[in-house]
Amino acid sequence: MATPEHHATAAHSSEHVDAGCPQADAAAALRHGPRGALIIASVAVGLLFLGWLLFYFVLFLGRGYIG
Q: How many Å apart are CA 52 and CA 59, to the nearest integer?
């Protein structure tokens, strides 16, 4: 019967783990973090709305009044 081998991950040894950064640097980086995500989300929602308007005016209004 084979004996189980014990494997150590790269994070097991302290020489493979980053020492980290000072707390002030981390706080400065996180202070402006959500701004980029909000810009990307706003652009995506704006493009989606413009696409909806395009469909509305080109396809739906082009067919005329129904009813």
A: 10
> What tens digit of pLDDT does each residue of 10-23 get?
777 777 777 788 88
> What torsion do the CA atoms of 9, 10, 14, 17 make, to the nearest 10 degrees?
-130
Contact present, 24 and 30 (Cβ < 8 Å)? no
Whether the predicted model's global pTM rises above the 0.90 cut: no
Spatial neighbors of 49 by CB under 8 A, at least 6 apart, are none
Supply 14's token pair: 């302290």
What one-letter code names the amino acid at 18? D
